[in-house]
Amino acid sequence: MSQLLRNISYLVFALLLTGCATNSLFMPYPAQLQGYQQQLSQGQSKPPTDLSAKINGEDGILYAQEAGRIAQLNGDFEQSKGYYAAAIRAYNSADFDATISASNLTANASSVLLNDNALPYRGPGFERILVHQYQAFNYLMLGDMEGALVEVRRANELQQMEQARYRKNNAELQAMENGAVTAEMNRLSKSSKATSSFLNAYSYYTTGLLHELSGEPNDAYIDYRKAAQIYPNRYVEQELVRLARSLGMQQYEEFKQKWGEAKTMQAGQGRMVVIYETGFVPAKKEFSVPFRIDGMWQTASMPTYANRNKHAASANIALGSNTRLQAQPISDIDDLAVNALVEEMPAILVRQAARVYAKAETNQWAQRKNDSWGGVAMEIFNIISERADLRSWLTLPSQAQIAQGYVEAGSYPLQINAKLAETIEIKSGQTTLVWAIQTGSHLRVFSKTL
């Protein structure tokens, strides 16, 4: 038994060493972010100092994303830009490491004997896409349109790359099968309206808007059309009608018949575009499947999403006494998160199978040694070390909505859902972007004339 206990001690020591790099081994990630979410919901502006201190660790991408989002919500766009840049560098470094590495999914699974929290965080594709989109918002608010365009173009490239990657991985892993896990995947798939995690109408709409503001209507038309195909939205459809007419597109008559004639800016008017984000994406939960192998207890713990609350109602927007708009959803971010988990589940199963096999081998070793107490010790260690990976970017919104209209130039009080936000200036012939974020009871509003 002494040798077995030494082996267990080595495993525990390895766990402790790994914990220095990834904090989620000991504290589930949602618990680490709960305080920040509560503060954001109450309108408090606490700098993400303790998160930024962890950016150099194995979960650095995740902490950089969270810190960037929190700084952004606090209105510190320069600081947020630095955090997002750190996340982007880490993603690019991980791409390089993957390119030169000879490892594959099975080898990766064999290297993790504890649980998936020991793996460096790399994030699902939709998170990486949103890093670039939110970095573009930082550049916009800082008055750098060229920098914003670079970021949204990169977001578009990543959507195409993620689509190709998913097709490849799905073909390789579709043979993986497990009854309980398959049932959970089916439940998750039915709970999501999104068809994939990597096609985000919100990102395409943002790219289209920036292309249009930069005098690139053809590129704007292409991205608006992609957005409309992914997530139908009457404001995007009106943009397509308007651009199809101004560009002399043959689709103009078809679009006009389907969606009606589009309004255009009149002399003395400006354009107001409202992007409204609400709530937080849900945190992952753990579900465990206990079973016996050769008479010894094993536990498989997997991440999932519990039943989710309904989205908030479409925002009612009032500008002055004459302009009334009702926002429409452009993307359900929580649906993207659910789909990302479903898409990742086959790879999680590969690692889980390798881990269960490795743990079963330690139990059988104890049996061959007739070491009943050692076998019990290993059973206990295997059970307590099995934890689902609950890491995800938790300060993202649950849903994004948009609205837009043409308004006579002037300064007006803005109200969203009957809450007075701030005074908005509309300039003739220009676009005023209003970015509103509702977290709990607190509403933040940032605006920029472009």
TrEMBL record:
InterPro entries: TPR-like_helical_dom_sf, TPR_rpt. Keywords: TPR repeat. The keyword tRNA processing does not apply. TPR repeats lie at residues 201-234. SUPFAM superfamilies: TPR-like. This is Tetratricopeptide repeat protein.
